């Protein structure tokens, strides 16, 4: 017998292993933002207003160097475009919810919440309270993200810059991207996007990033035709 | 003050992206190529960010042995591929960076 309460706590519980990976990410974000010169209040506010790890990492240097606002907004938009896919994937399961529930769950829709929510929605069984599972798993991540950002801001002010803390940024992205390689086309996308971004890195306002993403997607879609699943390690 | 407005708009744009298909579901149909293109976005974006970070220093591409970030990054990628563990990837990657810098 499932209840709203049991689903909520099942959602929190399901998120716990992912929190192990999210805590260092939040700590590093908080520390990095401070190291780059972003004010503590702004760094913390970004974690609750934008609430998107990768976009926060990418935009932190832009925020610190007073890059034009439109560039920051567009960069965040590009990096967060994948959330539209999560939105599309979960939409059928949320169809019957009230507008208030849809608005709440959309705010909590991150990579980690999506992974747990879609897994739960695809299981058989009582579906009446599954949105409470989504809420629990998303809220657990949100609370963890706010607290780890705050700790990172506090500790980051005391970490010497010669510790190469900034290298944790590409390392974290590496940890996120490697499990995503499920098909050969993903490998080609990564190669084309990476090479193009490196060649275009001299261009201002992350134009190279946007260009590289477009080329990478194009290459991946061409390679995708007729390919099978790629056995991953 | 302007930066706060920028962050609010960036947050609103992110929120709209997350809400997009959830509110429009059943109201409009998306072309298939668009849905397919979206599936490549995470890999493309992350690769486009990682590559210049580890391949280049101050806008100059460097494949030589004194580019510790490149070799530490490759090692970290192998760890991430085998273990899928964020903590371990970051820890091993940082240690590899320090070790490489000490040797070369």
Describe the structure in your own words:
The complex is a heterodimer of chains A (233) and B (104). Chain A has eleven helices and no strands. By secondary structure, chain A is mainly α. In chain A, helix 2 (40-49) runs antiparallel to helix 8 and helix 5 (82-94) packs parallel to helix 7 (111-121). Chain A starts with a helix and ends in a 9-residue tail after the last helix. Chain B has 104 residues and is mainly α. Chain B has one domain. Helix content of chain B is 77%, strand content 4%. Chain B is elongated. The mean pLDDT of chain B is 88. The chains are: A mainly alpha (233), B mainly alpha (104). At the A-B interface, helix 1, helix 2, helix 3, helix 4 and helix 5 of A face helix 1, helix 2, helix 3, helix 4 and helix 5 of B.
Query: What characterizes the major β-sheet of chain B?
Result: 2 strands, antiparallel
Radius of gyration of chain B, in Å, reads 20 Å
Number of strands of chain A: 0
> Average pLDDT across residues of chain A?
86
**Bulk shape of chain B:** elongated
Number of alpha- plus pi-helical segments of chain A: 11
Overall body shape of chain A: globular
Binned strand content of chain A: under 5%
Task: Provide a quick synopsis of the model.
The complex is a heterodimer of chains A (233) and B (104). Chain A is mainly α and 233 residues long.
List keywords for this structure.
heterodimer, A: 233 residues, mainly alpha, 2 domains, 0% strand, B: 104 residues, two-stranded antiparallel sheet
Topology of helices and strands:
The complex is a heterodimer of chains A (233) and B (104).
Chain A (H helix, E strand, L loop, with lengths): L3 H33 L3 H10 L3 H12 L4 H11 L2 H13 L4 H9 L3 H11 L8 H27 L11 H10 L6 H16 L7 H18 L9
Helix pairs in contact in A: 1-3, 1-7, 1-8, 2-8, 3-4, 5-7, 7-8, 10-11
Chain B lengths: L1 H23 L7 H8 L1 H15 E2 L2 E2 L6 H16 L2 H18 L1
Antiparallel strand pairs in B: 1-2
């Amino acid at each position: 017998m499932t209840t709203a309460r049991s689903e909520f706590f099942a959602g929190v519980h399901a998120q716990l292993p992912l929190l192990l990976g999210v805590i260092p990410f939040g700590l590093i974000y908080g520390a990095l933002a401070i190291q780059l010169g972003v004010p503590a209040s702004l760094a913390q506010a970004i974690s609750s207003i934008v609430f998107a790890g990768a976009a926060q990492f990418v935009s932190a240097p832009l925020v610190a160097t007073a890059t034009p606002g439109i560039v920051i907004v567009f960069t965040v938009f590009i990096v967060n475009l994948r959330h539209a896919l999560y939105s599309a994937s979960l939409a059928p399961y949320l169809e019957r919810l009230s507008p208030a529930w849809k608005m709440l769950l959309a705010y909590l829709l991150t990579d980690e919440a999506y992974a747990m929510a879609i897994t739960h929605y695809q299981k058989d069984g009582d579906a009446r309270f599954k949105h409470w599972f989504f809420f629990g798993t998303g809220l657990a991540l949100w609370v963890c993200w706010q607290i780890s950002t705050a700790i990172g801001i506090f500790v980051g002010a005391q970490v010497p810059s010669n510790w190469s803390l900034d290298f944790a940024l590409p390392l974290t992205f590496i940890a996120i991207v490697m499990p995503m390689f499920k098909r050969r086309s993903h490998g080609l996308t990564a190669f084309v996007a990476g090479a193009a971004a490196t060649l275009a890195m001299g261009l201002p306002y992350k134009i190279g990033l946007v260009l590289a993403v477009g080329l990478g997607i194009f290459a991946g879609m061409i390679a995708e035709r007729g390919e099978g699943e790629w056995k991953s390690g | 003050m302007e930066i706060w407005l920028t962050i609010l708009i960036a947050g609103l744009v992110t929120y709209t992206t997350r809400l997009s298909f959830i509110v429009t579901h059943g109201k409009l149909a998306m072309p298939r190529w668009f849905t397919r293109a979206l599936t490549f976005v995470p890999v493309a974006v992350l690769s486009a960010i990682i590559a210049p970070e580890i391949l280049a220093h101050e806008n100059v591409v460097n494949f030589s042995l004194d580019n510790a970030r490149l070799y530490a990054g490759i090692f970290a990628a192998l760890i991430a591929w085998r273990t899928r563990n964020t903590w371990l990837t970051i820890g091993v990657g940082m240690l590899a960076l320090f070790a490489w810098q000490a040797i070369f």
